[in-house]
Amino acid sequence: MQGEVGEDLLSLRLSVGSAYHFEPTKKRKRIDEPNDKNIMVLLQARDRMIRFGCNRHGMGDDKGFQLVRLLLLCATAVDRNDLSSSTDLLRQLYRNVSLSGNPIQRVTAHFIDGLMARFITKNSSFYSSIMADPSPADVFSAFTSFFLASPYYQFAHFTANQAIFEAFEEDEHWNGGCLHVIDFDVSYGLQWPSLIQSLSEKATNQKPISLLITGFGKNMEELSDTEKRLSSFASGFRNLFFEFEGRLRGEKGQEEIQVKKNATVAVNLVFYLHTLKNYSDIYATLMQINTLNPSVVTLVEKEGSRGNHSGFMSRFMESLQYFAAMFDSLDDCLPARNKERLRIEKNHLGREIRNAVAVKDEEEKGCRYEGLETWKTAMERYRFEGVRMSSRSVSQAKLLLKIKSHCSAMDDHGNGTGFRIFERDEGKALSLGWQDTHLITATAWRRSS
């Protein structure tokens, strides 16, 4: 499906763009807000879509082009503050999508919700009914389900961990078996069990290994849970001494990180930099990291050109193409009616789509998705140089796809019609892609000499 949708999007950039003139100066000044009657009609259409989606087929696979065209027309109308056209197009769209239909219907349903929230604005009492965040338990459940079902997060974690492990091995002649990882967004800590296991397999009675993880998180409860999970996991391995230091993101003194003396220092930036509000914060972070004198900095980010510098329609179409690939890839991982898949799409991917589309002040949610070249320029500006990804990293990534690719054909080189591994930037970057769309890219960096 993604190949066809990708071609559709390319042609629609011209056809829809020329018809609706995407220049910012063509926007109408909103003088009024959607009235409650129109909003109620739309909410009823949305409710019917949610309740009866399993029994509705709407537009079939061969109608994907028409569905995407309607969605882009609707996005244009919402962006231009055209209340009449927006109401009509939103109603049409809700009638033709399904949360349990084919991938393009499913992803479109979440984009419609984002447009609906942007249309009625935060001032409406109905806004929260669409944009309400799932509970922390539901967010964690969706994240872990996605982690287990798809190679997406595992590729990011395993590739970063391999670079950290290799940096630790290179420093063995002076680090005394000590590794200090500074994780700027430790989240639930799911990245670290594989590194703990790799280190434990290397450790011996004569040469034990000490691992300290300084992890920054959103709240103390999450950090406490992460510490318990990782400490419990690490306790099952001999000759490995594990410590976890939880720190709150944004707390006073975050810039004062004490590195462990005579240890290999690794800084982990997996899905972190894009969350920062502006380039000043990004550059300040990179300057701080440089002062830590790390042996390696691992950087993994989602691919895209959806930074705050571009206009809404440009970001919208980039996001649609990206998430169409994401939803298509889930079709390879889980059955259409699978409850875990619905949970992932609603509470993880759908939540991200709604926030990206609905929030008008883009800096409020971060959402700074950039391509490899942008991050490369930023790293090099602050005296980091790229490290070539090892053959072990490449082989590990391709092995992961062989294990995780359920339906897609896969050849001996790790290439296929579904998930693929791309070696880029003369071997200094590894990207996970779905067909020809790059999803995430992993790189490793060290201070320039």
Short description, anyone?
Belongs to the GRAS family. This is Scarecrow-like protein 23-like transcript variant X1. This protein has 449 residues and is of the alpha/beta class.
Question: Can you give a write-up of this model?
Answer:
By secondary structure, this protein is of the alpha/beta class. Helices cover 51% and strands 14% of the residues. The protein is built from 16 helices and nine strands. Strands 1, 2, 3, 4, 5, 6, 7, 8 and 9 form a nine-stranded mixed sheet that branches. Strand 7 and strand 8 form a beta hairpin. Helix 1 runs parallel beside helix 3 and helix 3 runs antiparallel to helix 13. The radius of gyration is 23 Å and the shape is elongated. The N terminus is likely disordered. Belongs to the GRAS family. This is Scarecrow-like protein 23-like transcript variant X1.
Percent of residues in helical segments?
40-55%
Overall SS class:
alpha/beta
User: How far do the termini sit from each other?
Assistant: 47 Å
In round numbers, the mean pLDDT is 87
The count of strands amounts to 9
User: Biggest sheet, open or closed, and with what strands and sense?
Assistant: 9 strands, mixed
User: How would you spell out the order of helices and strands?
Assistant: HHHHHHHHHEHEHEEHEHHHEHEEE
Which overall shape is indicated by the principal axes computed on the Cα atoms? elongated
Uncertain segments are 1-6, 10-25
Task: Tell me the number of structural domains.
Answer: 2
Q: What is the count of helical runs?
A: 16
Rg over CA atoms, rounded to whole Å, is 23 Å
What percent of residues are in strands? 5-15%
Pfam families: GRAS
Protein name: Scarecrow-like protein 23-like transcript variant X1
Motif (VHIID): 179-183
InterPro entries: TF_GRAS (IPR005202)
